[in-house]
């Protein structure tokens, strides 16, 4: 990928005499995979299928960056024309070797067993622990084929299934995470020099997840009602984390396998085919799920996000908000007051606490579709319940007069104004320590933490498939006309623009942190799908 940017003097980014940047990046993946398959029917009742294989993979990444400042004019945008030029380059490479095998056995299509094993070696890990071994087994039993179930004449399908296995992860670390590294640039008196960059860890190895689950599939009322139920238990250990080390050795942390997280949950999906034998085909599918996660093991609490708003702590849930708990606004003084957790009489960082989580109690959706003589009508609803959202828009825009260059939201009018006022918004003042903005780490309190539950109409569509005999005259295979709308309405107690926020600034995947986040748009489409 090659990219050039030039900011001329007509915009702020180009002041005072223009800036430019140029990027050249190359990401190359070489992959070689070979597999051998074997399948055989043994008599009438037995079926066996097997697969073995090997994969070799190498990833190489290169990036060169150039920058220029102070240009003679807007008509000369090339970096070679600039008065000041800087550059940098980076290169990284990683390799993966894998061997894998899988076998599937079934008896009378009633009992099935799947067994698999992977062996992976990654160059990212230490020389002592590059190999990881990941077995898995799955079992299925079609109870509906047993005579004692068939005789009930209730189920069209009834199946029990269970599986257990282990998987590995190497994401989240650099290509050279296990190596002791030095870097250049530590120059002295115009002479080149190097400095230590990273501690070595020859024992660094795979992050592994052990999971088991059981499930039930059932169909009744001549397949009018189909139910899928699943329970899972997942335990991830050997987390790839930057673990703190004594600073006297010259480093603050080292990448290690330390920590564990558990996830347990249940999932239910119910599908109803209301009119299976009618000219009108109508089906509805409803699903709901609940997941409970917990940090099982951690060397030390880890804070993350803007102003350390999130905190990972042993025994607590992931995505937990670490904030001050506002107890009230003093009705006499109008100052915000916070819970003194350690009872020392002052509010410090030691008084921050876990006051909610961005993870919902449960979530799911509803899909409905109707088809009749070429016409189709459908919609999808999604919902979440119990998740918290940190509304940083309110944090900055209900600031009480301490930020002269930032405006206000309307609920600033609900602030404390005279003795006796009962409100949770403190007085208007330029004293940051007495207000909601400023003071102890800018007083990030749970007052800005809101309920993020929602019900959203995700899509609504109406379409028409032109009859094949009409389409055939135009030498086409199919022709469909449709209109579709997305995000028509959202029901939520959240005061922000969108309860589905998962980013902060330029950092992606920061769940339920809302600071000037662009909401999902409401869109309308009219389209034509042509099959040739």
TrEMBL record:
<dbReference type="GO" id="GO:0009279">
    <property type="term" value="C:cell outer membrane"/>
</dbReference>
<dbReference type="InterPro" id="IPR039426">
    <property type="entry name" value="TonB-dep_rcpt-like"/>
</dbReference>
<dbReference type="InterPro" id="IPR000531">
    <property type="entry name" value="Beta-barrel_TonB"/>
</dbReference>
<keyword id="KW-0675">Receptor</keyword>
<keyword id="KW-0472">Membrane</keyword>
<feature type="domain" description="TonB-dependent receptor-like beta-barrel">
    <location>
        <begin position="20"/>
        <end position="488"/>
    </location>
</feature>
<keyword id="KW-0998">Cell outer membrane</keyword>
<keyword id="KW-1134">Transmembrane beta strand</keyword>
<dbReference type="Pfam" id="PF00593">
    <property type="entry name" value="TonB_dep_Rec_b-barrel"/>
</dbReference>
<dbReference type="InterPro" id="IPR036942">
    <property type="entry name" value="Beta-barrel_TonB_sf"/>
</dbReference>
<protein>
    <submittedName>
        <fullName>TonB-dependent receptor</fullName>
    </submittedName>
</protein>
<keyword id="KW-0813">Transport</keyword>
<keyword id="KW-0798">TonB box</keyword>
<dbReference type="InterPro" id="IPR023996">
    <property type="entry name" value="TonB-dep_OMP_SusC/RagA"/>
</dbReference>
<keyword id="KW-0812">Transmembrane</keyword>
<comment type="similarity">
    <text>Belongs to the TonB-dependent receptor family.</text>
</comment>
